[in-house]
Amino acid sequence: MRRILVLLSALAVLLTPTAAHASSKTPVNSMAFNLCGVMCNKGAMPPAAYTLKQITSRSIDVTSLQEICYSQYRYIMDRLPKGYSSAFVTTKSLGSCDDHDKRHGKNYGLAVIVKGAKIGSKHIKVLPSGRYSVGMYAKVKGKKLFASSVHNAPNPALNEDDLDSLYEWLRAKSGPILSAGDYNSFLDQPGIARFKAYFTDADHIDNEITFNPYGGRKIDYIFTSPHFTGETGDTLYTAISDHRIYLGSAWL
């Protein structure tokens, strides 16, 4: 009988989660920011420098940027430490983007930047309105995820079509998903309710203002799939854009 109890005790030790297993999740820090790169700052480099500082000083793992000149994007990528991967998609060609760095031309669009290695090539989704999302698979802190940057149409009817299309595109991706950016969507929209039935927004408790005009509105989101837990979010006001920087964190 004593031998049986010893064997059962040993088996219980083997089956009980160890501290290492219990703490196997790691925090993933994210940031979504619409730089308003032409309307607000005409392609200037100080907003890019400010964004770069936020990424590095806050140890951001996934950064989602919208309305950014390619020259501003290159400014950031050229100055980030080694180990970052990124994807950029051009949505327009605007003369203001050529004012400060003629090497990189007039391209304007959105980008996703990940602290980690990119897996495969970038993924581009053209939404029904003609707006875009750009994404990529990457390994962040040893874990594979799909990260995307989003900029939907501001028109409510077109926005709902964009939300539906984007939702289907994201749900078709494998593994953990982090999709962030300027969704241009209000909290009471059916498309956002659909997103929230599966994804969790970082700031799902307070729903803080992310867009300053019209008395302040919530239109930016950091959505994470159920693979993540413990989502939290906050916003940071900056005068360089009409949007606030949206900061998120979750465990993966």
Describe the protein's architecture and organization.
Residues 1-22 form the signal peptide. Keywords: Signal. InterPro entries: Endo/exonu/phosph_ase_sf, Endo/exonuclease/phosphatase. By secondary structure, the chain is an alpha+beta fold. It contains 6 helices and 12 strands. The protein has helices at 2-15, 19-22, 46-57, 70-79, 156-171, 190-198, and strands at residues 27-34, 62-69, 84-93, 107-115, 117-126, 132-140, 143-151, 177-182, 200-201, 220-224, 229-236, 245-251. The strands form 2 sheets. The chain has a 6-stranded mixed sheet. It has a 6-stranded mixed sheet with strand order 5-6-7-8-10-9, covered by helices on one side. A hairpin with an 8-residue loop joins β11 and β12 (245-251). α5 packs parallel to α6. The longest helix has 16 residues, at 156-171. It is globular and about 45 Å long. The protein starts with a helix and ends with a strand. Mean pLDDT is 91; it is low at 1-22.
Please specify the SSE layout and strand pairing:
Layout: H1 2-15, H2 19-22, E1 27-34, H3 46-57, E2 62-69, H4 70-79, E3 84-93, E4 107-115, E5 117-126, E6 132-140, E7 143-151, H5 156-171, E8 177-182, H6 190-198, E9 200-201, E10 220-224, E11 229-236, E12 245-251
Parallel strand pairs: 1-2, 7-8
Antiparallel strand pairs: 1-12, 2-4, 3-4, 5-6, 6-7, 8-10, 9-10, 11-12
Helix pairs in contact: 3-4, 5-6
Essential attributes:
six-stranded mixed β-sheet, 252 residues, alpha+beta
